[in-house]
Structure formats: C-alpha cells, structure tokens
Amino acid sequence: MAFTFAAFCYMLALLLTAALIFFAIWHIIAFDELKTDYKNPIDQCNTLNPLVLPEYLIHVFFCVMFLCATEWLTLGLNIPLLAYHIWRYMSRPVMSGPGLYDPTTIMNADILAYCQKEGWCKLAFYLLSFFYYLYGMIYVLVSS
Amino acid sequence: MSTQGNANPNSSVNNYSMSSTQNGGGAAPCQNGPGQMYPAMYTASSYYSSAPPAAYPTVAGHSAPPTGKTPVSSTGYSGNYYQSSSGLSPYPAPGTHQYSNAPGQSFQQTAPYAMPAGYYGQVYSHPSQGQTQPQPQQLQPNLMPASSGSNLGAPLYPIVSYPSAPGSSQYGTLRSSQTTAGQPPVSTVMPPPPTQSSLQQYSQGIGATPTPAQPGYGAPPLSQAATVNGQSNAVQQHYDQNLHNPMSHHYAAGPPNSQGPDKERPPSGTPGTSVHSSPQHHPGGDSSSTTTDSASPVPNSYESLEGGGYSDLAAPPAGVPAKQAPPFGYNYPTMHPAYQQNPAPKPNPSPSHGGYNPPGYQPYSQPFPSLSELSSALGGLGGVSELEAETLRPVNLLQERNILPPKRAPPPEPNLSNDLRKVNCSPDTFRCTLTNIPQTQALLNKARLPLGLLLHPFRDLTQLPVITSNTIVRCRSCRTYINPFVSFLDQRRWKCNLCYRVNDVPDEFMYNPVTRSYGEPHKRPEVQNSTVEFIASSDYMLRPPQPAVYLFLLDVSHNAVESGYLNVFCQSLLDNLEKLPGDTRTHIGFVTFDSTVHFYNLQEGLSQPQMLVVSDIDDVFIPTHDSLLVNLKESKELVKDLLNALPGMFTHTRETQSALGPALQAAYKLMSPTGGRVTVFQTQLPTLGAGLLQSREDPNLRSSTKNVLHLGPATDFYKKLALDCSGQQIGVDLFLLSSQYSDLASLACVSKYSAGSVFYYPSFHHIHNTAQKQKFQKDLQRYLTRKIGFEAVMRIRCTKGLSIHTFHGNFFVRSTDLLSLANVNPDSGFAVQMSIEESLADTSLACFQAALLYTSSKGKRRIRVHTLCLPVVSQLSEVFAGADIQAISCLLANMAIDRSISSSLSDARDALVNAVVDCLTAYRANGSNIQPSGLIAPAALRLFPLYVLALLKQKALRTGTSTRLDERVFSMCELKSQPLQQIMRMVHPDLYRIDNMTEQAALHLNDSVIPQPPLLQLTAEKLTREGAFLLDCGSVMYLWVGKCCNETFIRDVLGFQNYASLPSNMTEIPELQTTYSERTRAFISWLLESRTFLPAFHVVKDDASTKTSFFQHLVEDRTESAFSYYEFLLHIQQQMSK
C-alpha cells in the first residue's frame, strides 16, 4: 500500500466533487426561487453567472489531473460532461461578462425547466462520481 | 454589483428586491457591467448642488480639478465643458467650437463664468426653486426642482382632481401609511425635501376634504351622490377616447384642476361609469379582503403592490362543498329580486345557513348557484350548437377556390351563455387562440394547436368604467380583482373564479354608487364590466406617482442633418407641445449627440437656451443637474426657442461620427431619479464610445435562401442599458431613420427590454422620399400625443391549472407572471403562450385576468383590469371548433421569430409549416367520417394554410427574396410588439376593388354612405387592367391603378385627365367634390377609423418601378423562391401523407 499520484488525484477529486455538489445544490435552489417568484431574475443571474466558470474550471482541473495520472476510465467517464460544458459555454447568449444566464430569457418556461433539469442531472452525476472516486481512491491505495 | 438579493437572506415574496430598483439613489440591481461605474466616481450631485459661489473661480481658471471628478480628465473637462454659455453667441457652429485641451482657450471660457447673468446666477435669482439650502448628501437632485417647482404654481396632484372627495381620499391614506407604518422604507424611496413638501400637500388635501358623518349603512348622504357625478365628469374628460377621430385627444382639455364642469361633458357620449363608494363605513374585521398582504405593512416592491402569488393560502371555509363545480355561470339579473327582498340589513340569524352567513344579513331562500342556473348559464355546451357545426364543417382546401370571406371575419364567439358573453372582454383587447379551452394538456397536444393569449391592454377605449374606491376588492389568496365571473355565494361572500377561494365582501362593496342602493354587490360596476379601471390608493405606490418626463435624444451628425429629419421633428413637436400628455409637473429635456454629447440648459428665466457640450464620451457625465430637464410649463418659451433654432444649428456640421451609446448613458443618468420616456432619433450605425457597432450585413447574402445570420444583437450593451432603464422606470423609444445598415438587431434591444417601441424609416429623406416623410410626420403626431402610462407593471393571472409559458412583446419579465413595463403605450400588444399544468376537468370555465398598474400622465396611480372567460371542453372536435385562426397565426408568428433568433430562420420556417401539417393531420385522425382524398380542414381553420403561407412571405421570415437585414429585423419587431389586428393586416393585407364600388350592401353611418366592396384573394389573377385596387397593409396602403383603368375614376377620384398623366409618386387622394371621390374617400376613411397610426399612402401605376412593393404583398402568387398558395397546399398534403 503506497500513496501514489493516482491516489492523490482521487482524493483531490473527492474534495472538489464535494464542492461541485454544493454548486449544483445552489443552482437548483436558485432556479427554484426563480420559478416561485421569490427572486428578481436580474439579481439571480448576477449571483449565478460568476459561479459558472469556477464550476467548469474545477471540473476541467481534475480531469487534467486524471489525464496526468493516466486514469483512463475515470477520464472517460468525465469526458461527456466536459464536452457538454464546452458546448454549453460556446452556445451561450451574447454577453459581455462571464456566465451563461441572461435575465431577459431566463424566465422563459423552457429555459427555466431546462436549467432546473440540468441542475438535477449534474447533482446526480456529481453524487455518483463522488462515490466512484471514493471507491477509486481505496482501490488504488489497496492495489498498489 | 448589486447584491441586494444576497444581502436579503430573509426573502419572502414581498422582500423580493425590486425595492432596491426603486430607491433611485441606492444600488440599482440591474446595474451590471459598465453601468455600475459611473455613479460611484461621479459625485457631481454634491458638487453642483452644494457648490458655493466661491467655487466658480476654480472652474473658470481651472487651476485645480473640480471636486469629485477624476483628475485624469480634468483638463479636457474644463476645456470643453461649458462651451457656449455666453449669452451673446449661444449657438456656435459645433465644428468650430472644439477648443478642447488647448490651455490658451480657457480665456474664452472664463468669460461666461464671470458674467453675472451667466449660468449659475440663475439659481440664485430664484431662491424659491428650493436650491438655496445646500444638500451635500442629496442623492437625487433632479427630483427637487420637480416637486418644489410645482409647489410654486398649481397645486400638486393630490388635490387636483379630487378636491372634495368625501371621506378619506387615497392620499390621506398615503400620509397615514407614510407616517405611521413605514417611515424608514419610504424615506429610501423619496428624497427628504420632496417628502416634506408633498406631505404638506397631502395634508392640505385632507384638510380640504369634508368627512361626512355616515348615518348608517343603508343611507349614504346626498353629498356622496354629488361627488359621484363630479367624479364622473373629471374622469370622463380624460379617458373617453374618441375612436372616430384618433388624433383628437383629451389631454389638452384645460388645466387639470378645473372641476370638469358639466358643460365639458360630451352630451351624447356613452357615459363612463364612475364610482366613489362610501368610505366611512366601519370596515368589519371580516371585510378587509383588499388591503395589503399580511406579509409587510409597507409594500416595498411593485411585486407586492400589484399582489404576489399565493401568499395567504387559507383553507376554504368548512361547509363549502368541495366537489361542486365552480358556479361561474351565475345569472345576475335573476338574483336581483332575491336581493331586493332584503332591503335593510338586520340581525336575523338563520338556522339553515348559520354556518355560511355572518350575522346581520338575512339568509336567502336557496343556495345561490343552483344547478339549473349553472346549466342555463353554460348555454349550449351540452349539445353541439349550430355555430359549432358550422365551424366544424369540413372544407376541402384544394377544391375551395374562394376561401376568403367577403369581409374580414370577426373573431369566433366563445360558447358561453348570453349573460356571460355580454360581459366578456372585448376580443380587440383580449383574445385567446382557442376559444374553447381544452381540459388537459394531453387534449391540447392532440389538437396540435398553440394555446395562448393576445393582449392589447392599454388600448384606447371609448368606454371605460373608472372606479374610485377605498378598498379594491381582491381575492385574499391569489389577489385576483373581483370581476364579472366570480360567483356570490351569498350577499356577504364571493368565490374567486381563479383559485376558488371564498372571500368576504367588504362593507363598502355592498353600497352601489351607480344605483345608490345598498346590498347589491353583484350590481357594482366591477362585477358588471370585464374591463374596468381602478384609481389605486397609496398601497399601490412605492413612491409618489412620477410626473410625465420626456427626454428627446437627437442625432445631429452630418448624416442626420442631411436627411432633414430634425426639421420635421422640431416642427411636429412645436405643433404638439400643448398636447403632450401630462399635467403641470410635466418635464421635458433635450440632448443632441454626434461625436460629443450636447445638453441644453432650459432653466426658466434664461434669455436663450444654453448648449453644454460634453466631449468626454468614455465617461459621460451630466454637466448640471437641475436645469436640463425643465418644467414644460415654466420653460415653454425656451423650449420653443430651442426647437426653432435646433434645425439651423447643425446645418454645416462635418461631424460624421455618432456616439449613441454615451448619449444613452447620459440620458439614463439624467432620467434615473424620476423615470419617464426617452425618445431616441438615430440615423446611422453608432460608431463611437460604448455600444459602438460594426456593419454585419453582407449585401450579397440579402437574397440568400440559406441561413440568415446576425438576427440577434452583436453586443449586450443595449440590453443591459435597457434593463438598467427598466429598473429606473425609463422607457426608451427608438426612431431609426437610416438609409444604410444600422444594426437594428442590436439597437432595438434598448427598446425591447425597456418596454419601448421601435419605428423604422428606411431611406428617409425629407426631399427625396416624401412618402416616408409624410409617414414620419403622421407617426410623430400620434406618438407625441398618444396616452402614456409610466412605471407600469402587468400581471396576468389565470384559472388554477393553467400556467404561463412564455411572453412575447416589449417588456422585461420580472417573474413568472409579472411584466415590468417602464412605459406603456396604447399601441403595443402582447402575446402569452400558455400551458395546462393540471387537468381542468372540475371546472367548466377558464378565466384569464390581466391587471395593468400604471401611473397616468396626470400623476394618478391606476389599475386597468381585463378579464376574459372561456368555456372548457373535453372533446377534440370542440377544440377545433373554437380555434381562432387569426390569434393562432399571430402567436405562431411570435413563436417563429423567437425560434429564428434562438435557432435559425430555416428552423422557424419549418416549424411554421409543421404547425399546419400537424394540425391538419390531427384533424384528419380525429374525424373518421371524412373522405380520405383532398386536404381537409375544419371551417374554423380553413385559412390556416393561407395565413402561414403569408407569414412565410413576410419580410421577417422570407428567404430567397432580397431583404435588407434591418428591414427584416424591423418586421420581426413589429410582429412581436403590435396588436393583433395590426399584425393581421400586415401579414394578410386586405385587397378591394374600388373603381366600381356600388351602394349595394353599403353601410350607412351618420349620413354618409360607405360602400363595402368584397375582400379579394391576394393574387394577381384578381387584378384587371380595367380596375383600380386598394391594398391595405396596415402601416401602408397601395392604390394600384391598371393601365386601362376607367378614365372617370382617374379624373373624378385622382384628379388627373388620364392614366398617362398620373405621376408615379402620388401619395394622397385629392379631395374632389365628386360623388365618386367622396364615396372612395368615405371608404378609405372608414378603413382608417380605428387605426392609431395613419398608414403611408402610395398610388402605384401598373408600369411604375414601385409596383414590386405592391406585388410582394400578393401572397397567393408564386414567386421565384416561394410557393403559390395551391403549391403550398400540395406541399402540405405531401407532408401529411409521409
């Protein structure tokens, strides 16, 4: 049993995924508030937009770490989400600042529903990957 | 950055942070991006308002930078700051006056400041302007002169129209709520000095109001009745718009504090019912269903003012049968005797109804909504009515050649009982795509038709009941306004028709001021009319109602001067200056811009207007805060001087750049303390400063059949600015008069999200394009004089189970059912897509209510409420029978435009075709007894393919035909923001043959005979060389004259000898004294009767080059790149058989 770089990557990913889970929960709550009229869309977009890039960068960061650690299976599991993030950011509305959400279109029922669904899917993905990283970390620690 | 929402963790419905938007000085939540920087670093308000006279030498010598301004720009600042305040030469040619940074030039600058009669002296010669006390911390200096200025002259709004309102006026309520309930929140909304002065005004108003002692419930005093009439007059004066003469308007009718004397009352007009209910009843604890929510004593957002969602979800009282169908179809007249037999309230507890009735009122002999009444109210819902059979008649589209009805078909009538139909909202105001609402989303999906509403909420109305009441009766849980479709369970309780909650009837509501009788709540005007307007109390205000404030932002670059629009505009404004809607508080201001931004000091008392030039467009600032927006009444002469001088001032300008972005930022700063309307005139692409745009159009791709690019904005600068403006209640209207590409797709955002309107005059020139000039003049005339509502919000509520999916129009969506409208104008329409979330099986009627809360130009807070009631059906055939094809086409057009911007134009076009294919397939699948051959549509939908084809050939959506990008985008803007009728005329114009009109079937109106020629199909086949045809496209009218046209027609109507002598650019029909001419003109003016904007008129000769613009409207014909109608039908049939 030795502490390898792969094990370190898994531990780091574990911690960062916990952070991403919080991001996802925050996202879900925010859109729920929008839907139930509690918040002004302008405020809500202003709070959500700065969080988009950090979330994506965190994810990119541990993907790169897995690449360096040559954990191909784990990287492969994360590639779809990575691709989705890139696509999502490429197709964002015309904006000068960072972020994805436009207060003038966010109240459209389709977009609102899409964002909510996105939040739930991501939450599920991060939760599952959290346990997968836990398993992966133990496996790497035990097997090496 | 605005973190108001975050700083407010205890957010409830009412805490929702529009409050921060409202307190003008605070951090506006919409300020993000570049917008947030300037207020912080520019502390000019303290600088200017507190500057002692000793500060002038500092400025004049500019040895030290002025306080509050960043030193970096100080030289430029002092160099060209007040360029021309010298009274001797107030209007230097702008090109020669750029003495910007050269230090030597400052000597010229010292002169104006040293002059005793210079700019600042003005302030001190008028100490009563409220400027003498230094206000170092005052954040909103502009509001000061606004209210203090009005203090000098005529009284403020509170005592203007209701001088002797008995009992407590709404302003009395305002005072009490301000002083007792919430001083701290109010003080954030208003600057301290106006609060003081307006409080004084309020108390005056209260002091003047007699408070009659009310002897009892049943006997209101006679003085009450007198006020009812007086009230009626005053209101009548403002709101009865005469449809027959759209140009006549009622704002010029004397000073507003005239009592609305009887002689001013139109003698034969339909009287607007006006109600002032007796306010002195002691409201019982059980009757306060309308005061502000329990959530907070002082409403801190418009959200809470208009009433949020289900904040108070109380359980329905016990004893109400839960499963009973909601008794909507309640028949009021039959109830009348029942009420009459209880003339006076007396305690008489009833054994049988003890659970229901509050003590004090006699019980009724039977529960109100008996089943028999219900079924009778629902009319012919049981069996298929004749009407329905007709609308369901299958039509084989391929065989039916003349599919158009001879007249424009009226909208389908909802299948309701006569009583309900009579009170239902006018289809011009409120229309639903399906007049029979399907019960479930599954049924709606089966029909493949869109469900949605088309609204024209602020339409000019001929008759509008205006109600002044202390308590506006609303449902306690969903905040629905009481309306004709609620049901009265007994005399004391009513059941909401949207959420089915049982509410109490307040005492005040029991008295009917129209009949002056007591105990007839169902006879009140609120429950007799589906369109009513309430005068709102202070509960509906966040700040005192704003005055009408107009700012005109004029492009004066070389391009603009060349086009000559300034002349037209100035003349038009001069003519209409008196007719601008407003009262004594009306403010006006002007800003011009080329590569710099010019402000005009119009302070009363100046001998001439002074131009102030700000050339620092990277960080534009307001040179002076108190005299750029001036009271129109006080400075009228200066305004007139300016308007007379403006066209001449820039004639020799060589400036070709346009700094629209900085000018808009300046306008925003100037207006943000009050809100109001900014009117922008722009003639080219903005090329300088923030928001500069590049040309994105490739002329070679104008007629591409592939994808059209650049339909969306290039930058979000204009959108952000619009959101900032919307937050400060500023609406921006855009007039684009441009011959080149100006990127309307980006520019229009500034109007789109601030609830403004967009006007576009391609290739405008005052000499070369007279038709366009005339159109511009006519539009300006209407634009300047039309009614306007400020700081408005509109909420749309619907029966539980229905929900709003998407809004279309110009506004900002603030929450799922609330639109924020900085300005509302009578010419804008809205569309709403709906979805059915829960089954409507337990109800037989679905209702929609649109409530528009706005500040009138007279400074009154008003609520206009429209309620529409429609039956719910469970059969697919009934859904088809109730389809309103015009409304469906409009909604589809709106959806297609959204699609073309978010996805692509070809996607949008495919979606439109698929809408027809899907719908007709669904109909075929449903009807089993129809022969399989042919293309079958129900009669109600027989025009569907035609309208969709017409939509595909619109400028907005067409491909293959050369279309400028700006014209395409403008067409999209129009489709999204025009009311339904205007859109329908634009999409499918009306074609008439007018050279052989007979008096057969003519209309006889007021001694004039109006011939009624039949509508013709829009195909060249219907045109003959011998005829003359009128094509009415809404905003433009063509009179096509055939080569061999009857010479009598040309001579008697057009005033020319023969066809050859007709000029090719005729733009009006002369007024000739022949019957032929009179008849033709009578017909045309009849067509124009209900229009607000008069169309441009073109006489098109058959051989003229302009005839392509006429022929492009003949949508049934084949063009190089588009189907003919018959081909389109075959295409649909082919698609269906796939």
UniProtKB/TrEMBL annotation, chain A:
- Name the chain's protein: Cornichon family member 1
- Name the protein family: Belongs to the cornichon family.
Name the GO cellular-component terms. Answer: membrane
* Chief place of localization: membrane
Q: Tell me the lineage of the source organism.
A: Eukaryota, Metazoa, Chordata, Craniata, Vertebrata
Which organism is this entry from? Cyprinus carpio carpio
One GO BP annotation of this record: vesicle-mediated transport
Q: Where exactly are the transmembrane stretches of this chain? A: 7-29, 56-83, 123-142
What PANTHER family does UniProt report for this protein, alphabetically? CORNICHON-RELATED
Keywords attached to this entry: Membrane, Transmembrane, Transmembrane helix
UniProtKB/TrEMBL annotation, chain B:
Tell me a GO cellular component.
Answer: endoplasmic reticulum exit site
Domain Sec23/Sec24 trunk positions: 545-784
Keywords in alphabetical order:
Cytoplasm, Cytoplasmic vesicle, Endoplasmic reticulum, ER-Golgi transport, Membrane, Metal-binding, Protein transport, Transport, Zinc
Which InterPro entries does this entry report, sorted A to Z? ADF-H/Gelsolin-like_dom_sf, Beta-sandwich_Sec23_24, Gelsolin-like_dom, Gelsolin-like_dom_sf, Sec23/24_helical_dom, Sec23/24_helical_dom_sf, Sec23/24_trunk_dom, SEC23_SEC24_subfamily
Output compositional bias ranges, type Polar residues. 1-22, 97-108, 167-182, 270-280
Q: Residues in domain Zinc finger Sec23/Sec24-type?
A: 472-509
Membrane-spanning regions, if any?
none
Q: Where is this region: Disordered?
A: 1-35, 54-108, 122-150, 167-225, 245-369
All residue ranges annotated as the Sec23/Sec24 beta-sandwich domain in the record:
789-873
Q: Which family does it belong to?
A: Belongs to the SEC23/SEC24 family. SEC24 subfamily.
Provide the protein name.
SEC24 homolog B, COPII coat complex component
Q: Which organism is it from?
A: Cyprinus carpio carpio
